[in-house]
Amino acid sequence: MLVEKYRSEVFRTIYAVLRDESEAEDASQEVFMKIYNSLPSYQNQGFKTWIIRIAVNHAIDIKRRKGRFREELSNTIESAGPETESVETVFINKEQQRFVRQKLNELPENYREVIYGFYIDEKSYQQMAIEQNVQVKTIETKLYRARHWMKSHWKEDEF
After folding, report:
1. Residues 81 and 89 sit within 8 Å (Cβ to Cβ)
2. Does this model's pTM top 0.85?
3. What share of residues in the chain are helix, strand, coil (percent, to 5)?
4. Long-range contacts of range 80-83, CB-CB < 8 Å, 24 or more positions apart?
5. How far apart are CA 128 and CA 117, in angstroms?
6. How far is CA 150 from CA 47, 56, 103, 115, 153, in A?
7. What gap in Å lies between CA 155 and CA 103, rounded to an integer?
């Protein structure tokens, strides 16, 4: 039932990152196994968002393993749907992008810098530490605190 209900959304999400249909199919199956195994840890905060987050993270992991992940997050978000998207879907996607960017701008400056660096610019902890002239542990701490700030200030249902 879970697979039938969320199959197309998970596949589209993964395909938007991997850009390979057969890889996306394999990854979708792996994601549903991860979802099934992770159900006991689910905390009742936006089930669809939770599933999509697992799918995106898995797809990014696959892409990173192959050393090909260098697209900007905005390009991935913009191409998340099929080429035959309706006008409404395109509008909704653009609105969601605008909303995410607005929410990211609400982050405190020191957190925003590490979130953009790690997730959007895909910099390593070491790269960011060198650029900011701090220890790697400082970057890890900032990223941890930024995630914690987002969890406590943002409602998952908003996304």
Report:
1. yes
2. no
3. 80, 0, 20
4. 80/12, 80/13, 80/16, 81/12, 81/16, 82/12
5. 7
6. 18, 18, 9, 10, 5
7. 11
Residues near 54 by beta carbon (within 8 Å), at least 6 away in sequence: 31, 34, 35, 38
pLDDT of residue 137: 94
Residue 138 included in any domain: no
Identify whether the C-beta of residue 78 lies closer than 8 Å to the C-beta of residue 119.
no
137 within domain boundaries: no
Cα four-point dihedral sign 133, 136, 141, 144: positive
Q: How far apart are the C-alpha atoms of 59 and 23, rounded to whole Å?
A: 9
| Whether 42 contacts 54, CB under 8 Å | no
Mean pLDDT within 121-134? 89
| Residue 73 confidence (pLDDT) above 50 | no
CB 90 within 8 A of CB 44: no
Domain with 11 in it: 1-70
pLDDT score at 42: 85
Mean pLDDT of the chain: 80
Whether residue 125 lies inside any domain: the answer is no
